[in-house]
Amino acid sequence: MLLPLDLLRAGEWADIAEVSGEPGFVNRLAELGLREGSRFCVVQPGIPCLLQLNSCRLCLRGSETTQILVRPVNGPVS
Amino acid sequence: MPVLPIVVALVGNPNAGKSTLFNALSGLRQHVGNYPGVTVEMKKGDFVVDGRRVELIDLPGTYSLAARSPDEMVAVDLLLGRQPSEPRPDLIISVVDASNLERHLYLTTQLMELGVPVIVALNMIDMAKSQGITIDAERLAKSLQVTVVPIQANAGTGLDSLRAEIVRAADGGVAPAANLLPEPILRESEALHGSLNGEIPPFLARRLLLDVGGYTEQWLTAKRGPEWHQTLLDARLRLSESGCPVPAAEAKARYAWIRAATAMAITKPAIRPVSTTDRLDTILTHKLWGTLVFLALMFVVFQAIFVGAEPLMGAIDAVTKWLASLVEGVLPVGPLRSLITDGVITGVGGVIKFLPQILLLFAFIAFLEDCGYMARAAFLMDKIMSRCGLSGKSFIPMLSSIACAIPGVMAARVIENRRDRIATILVAPLMSCSARLPIYGLMIGAFLTVGRPFWLKGFTLFVMYMIGFLVAPIVALILKRTLLRGATPIFVMELPTYRRPSLKAILRRMFDAGWAFVRRAGTLILASMIIVWALLYFPNTDENGQKYEERIAAITEKAEATEGEDAKAEGEKAVNALRSEWKRTSLLGRVGRSMEPVFAPLGWDWKIGVAALASFPAREVIVGTLGILYQEGDIDSDEKKDQLQNTIRDRWSEDPIRGPYVVPIALSVMVFFALCCQCASTLAVIRRETKSWAWPAFTFAYMTILAYIGAFLTFQIGRWVVDHLS
């Protein structure tokens, strides 16, 4: 099941399935490690939201989060 | 034969600890490099290892070499030796955070393609260890095929071996660049490079191909036209068809390579342990608790800037006055004495007076940034600030401007996005700064205190501050929709791990900010102060050719010679009348009087007009100028201020035309001062921070127009209310 990132709740884990949007934006996210297959945990949901990706904590703003489709998973290791 | 210095570039992600390493390596020998047309600065320093001089250059923190703007391109140009004023680096130190190695190595893999030896400085090994991550540096070096030096920059660990490796690597050759991009990309970029006839180096040809909408693409399309652009698009289309869609293919290839290269070198726990940062963040980024902590912190900061800086500012004022009186005792009466006391000493004092506030604010900013809190504050404030088209990072600069716009404008340096930074800088002077308080106080004291409800005083002051709070976001929004329009910045921000801030780094930031202000802004401020002094001083003779200063001296002497209080008071009155006449006939006085029709719609007479004109370099001088124009002499005590208040109230009320409208006039003066950019220091700092005269000119123009319109509406509406409702 795929859903936009902004629908996840605090503490939920997911894998990124698809990042769409303007190429520069997709590329910048990829440089930061937010790309297909990356596993992350939602620290703070909402707009803007906080994500934990490996040992890196990222803050993402509103409109961008709806363009990221994710596949929820049970935890850090599946 | 003299040996050339080794030029070393320091490159890394933001928060990789690059600046700490730079300070640790180069100590106190630092200076700042500027580049035309961009707002980025690069710090340079040097040190000596084994008799070899090493020149270190600290590039702005970046996540990749995919430059999107001229500001980002400076670093890439410098690394490629395309920055005219700089030599090409002989060596690159790639600073990476050991606790987040894969992410940081992304940039390293790009640096490895530049054809310059790369040393990986594996920073924050302690933090990685505390998270259960261990890194085998030797294995990592072998698989990356570059030198890897583990360091702990803030503790100074590993720096000796890093210095030794710098000399060794600079003398050794360059390892052939690892071929980690897929074959079709290499093939297409080579073809592209060939078709451009060597106009750009192979590395840039690759960036051109991979960075959709990047700086190289913008620049070459503007230069070569849309037909050429089509060939680039065709090349990307071919890549897409051969299974390497741009830009996704680059990240995919690099991360795959990094994963393979680090697999044997890193061991980390399957589940990340809960860290101190995680625990702190549950409170500090919490919507309610985090916001409360932030507001409490801001309260402390502003108390410190307002209250803490006050004694120092008072002391600077006292020293200025003492120096002026010293000069007055030595020099004979005349233009030179007046220039030195009223122009230079008062001017320099007026500049230095801002230093305590700047130093204090930057101590806080450096502390909050260094410990990692600033990003959390930006996160908390982002929602509010995004409503006016800005991001959370604009909050602190705008709030700082309530104390003084100068440190506020300088604090906008923390905003990476150029448009956001400029928008913030342009609206910061709209916030009511502390220099506006004297005129608010005078007007409220004269017209809204006696015989008015007790709450009106505070309420009016509150409204004056609210004008700034409301107008600034509106102007920011308009600017972002018009002049500074562009793609919304990609708001992805990394929240660094909390760490203990270093006192050295904080002192360094304070010193840099203070020095930048005094040296580059100070000269401009002083120049403008002297110009206004001259405009108020000349001509210094009356219609009979007699010098005002001599007449004043004669009256004072005579009054002092005679006995009795009455004669002395009489003498003082005559002196004040004479000084008022002098200002009235001065160049600025004449301009002010001829501009009366311009001031009339605001309800002002020429005296207010001249006082407002004279306050353009520094708004706080208005009270002093009004004092002279209303023949009250120097306003140097509270008693004198009360007297001036009474005089202004009486004179305005006596005026047959303006008499009934004193309150609308007072409000119109206050609104004008709330919105107008009467501060040469702010303009000089805006020029310094934006590296352009256009932005300070624009700020001055829009704020003056806004102030005029605001004062006009205030007076006209006020007059209508007086005429119809009372």
Describe what you observe in this structure:
The complex is a heterodimer of chains A (78) and B (726). With 78 residues, chain A is α+β, with helices and mostly antiparallel strands. Chain A has a single domain (3-73), classed as Ferrous iron transport protein A (FeoA) (SH3 type barrels). Chain A has helices at residues 23-31, 62-65, and strands at residues 3-4, 13-19, 39-44, 49-53, 56-60, 68-73. In chain A, strand 4 (49-53) and strand 5 form a beta hairpin. The model of chain A has no long low-confidence stretch (mean pLDDT 86). Chain B has 33 helices and ten strands. In chain B, the strands form two sheets. A seven-stranded mixed β-sheet of chain B has the order 2-3-4-1-5-6-8, with helices on both faces. A two-stranded antiparallel sheet of chain B has the order 7-9. The mean pLDDT of chain B is 86. In chain B, helix 9 (215-224) packs across helix 10 and helix 20 (418-427) runs antiparallel to helix 22. The radius of gyration of chain B is 31 Å and the shape is elongated. In chain B, 62% of the residues lie in helices and 7% in strands. The N and C termini of chain B lie far apart (91 Å). The interface between A and B is large, with 36 and 47 residues. Strand 5 of chain A pairs antiparallel with strand 10 (492-495) of chain B, so a sheet runs across the interface.
SSE layout and pairings?
The complex is a heterodimer of chains A (78) and B (726).
Chain A: E1 3-4, E2 13-19, H1 23-31, E3 39-44, E4 49-53, E5 56-60, H2 62-65, E6 68-73
Antiparallel strand pairs in A: 1-6, 2-3, 2-6, 3-4, 4-5
Chain B: E1 6-12, H1 18-26, E2 30-34, E3 41-49, E4 52-58, H2 70-79, E5 91-97, H3 101-111, E6 118-123, H4 125-130, E7 134-135, H5 137-144, E8 147-150, H6 159-171, H7 183-195, H8 202-210, H9 215-224, H10 226-241, H11 248-262, E9 266-267, H12 276-284, H13 289-308, H14 310-330, H15 335-352, H16 355-370, H17 373-386, H18 395-400, H19 405-411, H20 418-427, H21 437-447, H22 456-481, E10 492-495, H23 503-537, H24 548-561, H25 565-585, H26 587-594, H27 596-599, H28 606-614, H29 622-629, H30 638-654, H31 662-675, H32 680-690, H33 694-725
Parallel strand pairs in B: 1-4, 1-5, 5-6, 6-8
Antiparallel strand pairs in B: 2-3, 3-4, 7-9
